[in-house]
Amino acid sequence: MTLATVITLIRLTLIPVFAWIAVRYGRTVDSESPDEALRWLAVAIYTLASVLDGLDGWIARHFDQKSLAGAILDPLTDKALLMTGLITATFVNWGIDWHLPVWFIILVIARDLEIIGGIWILFFINKRVPIVPHWTGKVCTVLQMIAMGWIMLRFTAIDLIYPTIAATIFTIWSGYEYYMMGYRQLPGKLRS
């Protein structure tokens, strides 16, 4: 097992720890005695897991530690971390009665299911699926993380609606781009 894969596994174990602490913090808020140390611990764990994402990729590339396990685990861990963060930002009380709207998390899940379903369909038809990340997908992920951080850090200077709208636009746009990318991979007779 490579060092990059070990770091990915550490990130994977940090996800339930983050969720547990976030939920515990939300319960202290609900009981009207918020434990801010728990909030900052949740933020620190989420940040550590995010930073380790960059580290495991850097180690894999620079020390030629690319592996099949890493190629499968890394993107799954990335998605699990982001979805866990978004779900807690939607359903956990972070203390200022701010949370992502439920329709937003439904949109994010629908987009991800569209991408996963498209990959399965293309693999069934073509027996291969060249996956090329689109820049709108990367912007989408960053904006979703910003909206989530907005809540966890309680950034109240600007209303939450603005990062939510920006993330929504790129979630829809990237979903469309990935749909079109998949559509273009269909054999000609299936496209007509």
Could you name the key traits of this structure?
79% helix; 0% strand; mainly alpha; 192 residues; 7 helices
Describe it.
By secondary structure, the protein is an all-alpha fold. It has two domains: 1-81; 96-192, no CATH class. Helices cover 79% and strands 0% of the residues. The protein contains seven helices and no strands. It has helices at 3-30, 36-62, 68-91, 102-126, 135-152, 161-185, 188-191. The protein is globular. The mean pLDDT is 90.
Main beta sheet? none
The span between the termini is: 46 Å
Number of E-state strands: 0
How many distinct helices?
7
- List SSEs in N-to-C order: HHHHHHH
Q: Could you list the spans in which at least 5 consecutive residues all have pLDDT below 50?
A: none
Strand content: under 5%
Q: What is the average of the pLDDT values?
A: 90
How much is the radius of gyration in Å?
18 Å
> What proportion of the residues is helical, as a percent range?
over 70%
Helices and strands, with pairings:
Elements: H1 3-30, H2 36-62, H3 68-91, H4 102-126, H5 135-152, H6 161-185, H7 188-191
In short:
The chain has 192 residues and is an all-alpha fold. It has helices spanning 3-30, 36-62, 68-91, 102-126, 135-152, 161-185, 188-191.
